[in-house]
Input
Amino acid sequence: MTTSDITLAARGADTILPPGRLEGLLESGRSLRVKLGLDPTAPMVTLGWAVVLRKLRHFQELGHTAVLIVGDFTARVGDPSGKSETRRRLTADEVRSYAKPLLDQFQRALLPEPLEIRWNSEWLEALDMSEILELASTVTVAQMLERSDFANRYSEGTPISIMEFLYPLLQGYDSVAVEADVELGGSDQLWNLMMGRIIQTRYGQEPQVALTMPLLTGTDGRQKMSQSLGNYIGVTEPAAEIFGKTMSIPDHLLGEWFRLAADRPAEEVDQILEGINSGRLHPAKAKRLLGKRIVSLYWGEEKATTAEADFDQRFKHREVPQDAPPFAMPTDDPVYLPGLLRSSQLAPSASQGRRLIDAGAVRIDGEQVQGYEIARARLVRKTLTVGKRRSVFLRN
RNA sequence: GCCGGGAUACCCAAGCGGCCAAAGGGAGCAGACUGUAAAUCUGCCGGCGAUGCCUUCGGAGGUUCAAAUCCUUCUCCCGGCACCA
Output
């Protein structure tokens, strides 16, 4: 039993420190407090964030308590991890507007029990100056400058504010506040998690185990998944969308995505990769399986099957989508198509709409359109598509 | 504080009086080919009911028939020096 516990707990992990300690904790039979802190800095939970959330869920499945910290305070400070310049600080309003929808999405990825949700403004806002000084005395400037992101910025002369030095301390203090036995994070968080150990020790607590997960590569296959880069998939996106976007990832991501995004066990992943390498399994087939697995996690098995069928209809056979959102047409006749493309959000501007028409990207019920003036009768109750992804159904 | 360099579209970056809605690259979008993959090729990539008009080259003002380009001033960045330690 313990062996399989450890297998699940460590599955997919990038780094677990200190060595052997996690095994010790799991064997102790004690119910552990497993901390995951997420700053509400963007409005959506992507598959990237979901990687650590899934990891937290593993611990829940093993009966341990998930302590999810909403970093409403730390989001206003700005995590310097992996950054080459000062992160923009969010306002309290921005944080609040993100936090609420995020919370629902977090819970979608986790089990309802055992789960503890805390907001770190609860204790961080309450710190007074003498407590902050106490906290600040735990780490030296030299220690801070060991971090590669700070070291790079320092040597390049890019400004580092003292506030940024405070960030890891606050995160570490979170661990003290919730008495974490384990803290999870992305691999860029390792330093912060280790800082938590130092701070916990200073406050007389047993230092936590730091467990980091690799950062998921985005749909572009190059950079880390992030909302600002637009290479992401959100867990609340429609099933068909998740499936479709998954199909568009480069093949070389298959292994990583099966492991991290679909959260499959190592043996299964190896088997799939072996199948691809030996030619027994076509990469497109594997990717379909991946898409279904991912959709199942957030929408269930049934929706996953539907999503796959939709995909074939839409893209493989290039059929006109049945589920295009309706859009009420203007009453003009003839209709100025570039304007319609803009007002229906199929194109950002009428000018770009024109160019899309010129490029042959615009279709009415699957038929390419030429020209800007279209008789109203040709459009009513038809589906207007731009490219393969965007479409509306034109209501009268 | 002084001297010098710089700020150009989503990002990098050319342009230094008209030929500039602004080279080139990246990103993005679309088309072809595919497995909606990658790679490749092609087109587009400020707005406008549009062979023309309007708004853009850090901000404001000016010179000029004409300014991204010249002048004044302001803001911010970068390098050097000085100051402080």
Notes: The CA atoms of residues 364 and 384 of chain A lie 5 Å apart.
